[in-house]
Amino acid sequence: MIVEPKIRNNICINAHPEGCAKDTLRQIEYVKAQKAKRGIKSAKEGGNGPKTVLVLGCSTGYGLASRISAAFEYGADTIGVSFEKEGTETKGGTPGFYNNMAFDKAAKEAGLKSVTINGDAYSNEVRDQVIAELKKFGTKVDLLVYSLASPVRTDPSDGIMYKSVIKPINQSYSGKCLDIIAEKLTEASAEPANEEEIANTVKVMGGEDWKLWIDALTKADVLNEGVCTVAYSYIGPELSHAIYRDGTIGGAKKHLEKTAHELDAQLKASLKGSAYVSENKGLVTRSSAVIPVISFYLAVLFKVMKEMNLHEGCIEQMERLFAERLYCGSNSEMTTVPVDAENRIRLDDWELRDDVQAKVVENMNKTTDENLAEYCDLAGYKHDFLSANGFDVEGVDYTKDVARFDVI
């Protein structure tokens, strides 16, 4: 079967197995090159970086990039958790299914331990599975990455499923969106969330589950002394605050940051450990394509940052997080992590530079359907949109039949 992208409502709903695998390998090669460039020693080479890493939400985006950086730059053994639809002989799986397969295969070839658990990371059953695997490893976790981004969560204490929403609070919001397929600007709006929607979004995307993980792993005695945990978040520019930072998602992210403070104190007292939220750069995701103003903003941002030689994708961001924030001490040892006044790691520092933001706002104000290509990085945005599902990846022959969907 010839596999072509199926796009509905600005969301790609299928994946190309070879494309996903090829893009995962591209990220691995980037990290290997950075390892050589920076002179980083892996664990087996005597490096002081992380030796055992747990990544919750390991299959795509920042989670996948974190796992790749940990394994192929620092030589860490990894356990990854994600909830993916598996491919069969005749039916395709989700992009993360193929990304995980490619990662596990490459890790095995490199002599690294790699266990990927396909299941609901919010469940106690999966927590028990992870603890059992760590016991088999015979080591304890040095770094826990919390990168879950599901729109729903079932609370393990009562079995109730909660759903998150992307809405403003107290007022309606409207803004321009970029329809990347039609290559035109459209108007999108969102009505304010009610109190239940606000609370449910915090329940799904706040820090409650992150704390459950830390508590469970602490009780099972599988966290190493000096353990670090980091969760990922986004602040974004002022022009998006009404729909994002000051909206329902922002409320959840603020809860996540509050949880980081609590976990930091908890881990310091018990294991001389630490907890952080890393505020990362805006990138193309399934949700960003449909949030008012975000898709338009990102397309303009990418063009400006590329012109300034500041643009980063997921793997560049996470490699910089590991090498220049978390493990930047002697021989990759974790020392004092550079943070802002709120104890947050700021990987969005380049995006939110005054000169970058001023140029982005100027260019957004100039953009019309007639001059989109002048001010928007249409090709780059479209590539990121498609490559996240294994399409438009260099070196893949998309005219070739995919014989079966359960292998790569």
What's the arrangement of secondary structure elements?
Layout: E1 7-8, E2 11-12, H1 17-38, E3 52-56, H2 61-74, E4 77-82, H3 95-109, E5 114-118, H4 124-137, E6 141-146, E7 152-154, E8 161-163, E9 173-179, E10 184-190, H5 195-205, H6 208-219, E11 223-233, H7 248-271, E12 274-279, H8 294-307, H9 314-326, E13 345-346, H10 354-366, H11 372-375, H12 378-387
Parallel strand pairs: 3-4, 3-6, 4-5, 6-11, 11-12, 12-13
Antiparallel strand pairs: 1-2, 7-8, 9-10
Could you please describe the fold and organization of this structure?
The chain has 408 residues and is α/β, with parallel strands linked by helices. 41% of the residues lie in helices and 16% in strands. The chain has 12 helices and 13 strands. The protein has helices at 17-38, 61-74, 95-109, 124-137, 195-205, 208-219, 248-271, 294-307, 314-326, 354-366, 372-375, 378-387, and strands at residues 7-8, 11-12, 52-56, 77-82, 114-118, 141-146, 152-154, 161-163, 173-179, 184-190, 223-233, 274-279, 345-346. A 7-stranded parallel beta sheet has the order 5-4-3-6-11-12-13, with helices on both faces. The protein has a two-stranded antiparallel ribbon with strand order 1-2. The radius of gyration is 21 Å and the shape is globular. The model has no long low-confidence stretch (mean pLDDT 96).
